[in-house]
C-alpha cells in the first residue's frame, strides 16, 4: 500500500513496508571496528582505597560520609561512615560526602568549617563550594581541613 501520490516501491509488501533487502537497495555489511575501538573503555572500579595523611587506609564502596565523627541523621544504614583521626579538629564532624557511580568517585563538601580542596593528578587545587559534587580521579588528592587523602 503506497502513500497517496507516491508510486509503490518495487518489491514492497502490501502492508506498505519496504523490503530492506530489496535488489534495488544493496545491503552493505557494517565495517568491523578496529580492535582498539571494539574494546569498550574500562569501567571505573566499584571500590576505591583512600590513603589518609594520618596513615589510615580505608576501602570505600557506594555512598558514604567522611569526617571526624560522621553520622547519618537520615537513618540510612547503607551509608559508609569514614572517621578521620584529627586531634587538631580541622576536619568537621561530618565534613564531606562521597559517592561511587558508573563514572567514578565523586566528593561533595557538606558546608564544612575548613573546606575541601581537590588536586587532580597534574592539576591545580580546586576548592569545592558546599553542595557541589566533583569527580576525583585515581591518584587525586583531597584536602579536608589540615588532613588529606589520596585516591587509589
How would you describe what is shown here?
With 152 residues, the chain is mainly β. The chain folds into two domains: 1-30, no CATH class; 47-151, Tumour Suppressor Smad4, CATH 2.60.200. 3% of the residues lie in helices and 34% in strands. It contains one helix and eleven strands, in the order αβββββββββββ. It has a six-stranded antiparallel beta sheet with strand order 2-1-11-10-7-8, with no helix packed on it. Strands 4-3-5-6-9 form a five-stranded mixed beta sheet, with no helix packed on it. The model has no long low-confidence stretch (mean pLDDT 84).
Descriptive key words:
152 residues; mainly beta; Tumour Suppressor Smad4; 2 domains; 11 strands; 3% helix; elongated; phosphoprotein; FHA_dom
**Would you give the CATH topology of the largest domain?**
Tumour Suppressor Smad4
Strand % is: 25-35%
Q: Enumerate the spans where pLDDT stays under 50 for 5 or more consecutive residues.
A: none
Radius of gyration: 27 Å
The first-to-last residue Cα distance is: 63 Å
Helical coverage, percent range: under 10%
Outline the biggest β-sheet: 6 strands, antiparallel
Short description:
The protein is mainly beta and 152 residues long. It contains one helix and eleven strands.
Indicate the topology.
Elements: H1 35-38, E1 47-52, E2 57-61, E3 63-67, E4 80-83, E5 96-101, E6 104-109, E7 116-119, E8 125-127, E9 133-136, E10 141-144, E11 147-151
Parallel strand pairs: 3-4
Antiparallel strand pairs: 1-2, 1-11, 3-5, 5-6, 6-9, 7-8, 7-10, 10-11
